[in-house]
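HUMAN: Spend a minute on the protein record below and explain its fold to me.
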Amino acid sequence: MGRILRCMLLASLCTLTGLSLASESQWRLVKDEAGVQVYLAEVPGSRYQAYRGVTLMRTEMARLLTVQEDVVASCAWVYACEEQRLLASDGEVDWLYTRLHTPWPVAGRDSIIQVRTRTAADGSVKRQLRGVPDYLPQQPRLVRVSKFEGFWQMRPVGEGQVEVIYQAHTEPGGSLPAWLANSFVVDVPFHTLLALRRLVEAR
């Protein structure tokens, strides 16, 4: 199955160049609740902000990776996820299809994400996320997310804890109301990390 990042998904929104241009000084804390911090940053040339979610999870790295790689069950913790499936896997690279729920009357979105997973010498794991919208033909009645760039960074910090960072920037495609776009950049990292943490910490 590969070390796919299912959650990456939802998010369903982001851009690598934009992320690199968002320097550390530009990130501002907009939510700090239930042990999850959400930061936002402006992205030059984009109407949509980049987001970064940070939390600590009381779990072992092996369990966290196992939960993330369960494609069938991933929509239980990926915010606004309606469907997610593995399209292909080739060594450390996976391709993931995600269909997202949006409130009426906004058209539903789907995305195709390439996930490249690397493990460092210190045991930390990074999943680099990149949208590949042309990997499959567009589906009827769905708007394909046009750009997505981001990453998951998971680092053991001792005492059975893992620091998890989920960062991304998205161009959702089509017409998206400002209120929905603004809520998504906060809700996606917050609810995704909160749900994932609850799942991996449950025994």
Summary: Helices lie at 8-11, 16-21, 61-68, 178-201. The radius of gyration is 16 Å. The chain has four helices and ten strands. The first helix runs from residue 8 to 11.
